[in-house]
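Let us work through a complete example step by step.
Step 1: write down the sequence.
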Amino acid sequence: QLTDALLESLKSCQNSTKIMFMFNTFNSLEKYRQAVGPQRCLFGFPGIWAIFEPDGSLIHFFSNWGVRTICTDGDWAALFSAAAIPCDVEPDMQSWLRSHAVFIVALLNTLAHSVAKKAPPTWGDAMHSARIAHEGFALVAKL
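Step 2: predict the structure and record it as tokens.
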């Protein structure tokens, strides 16, 4: 697995090196803490919007409203913010990532259904997504 190979490589970094993982996952973050050591393991999530243009070029911007970049470390949040990447501190990244995944699944369900039927979402579509979110958040609360 690519992740396992990457973790092996990161283990060889200097012990003073902080390692920030920035990805979306519902899985436990403990694997990453144990792999590189909890004292140097940080987590974050990028608040970035990106799309491919018809010519294949990628355009992007960092969000300063709604979902902003977040991370578990105040010094890194200040560094990102100083670099014009608005960033907030989220000490419980595990819960945030799981909640974000639930929200995105419910939202994408509505969008995918609307695209498939080539019509805007109905109240029934919204209620179905709300049930998906309810079940997902109930699962997060149990973890």
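Step 3: interpret the result. The chain has a mean pLDDT of 89.
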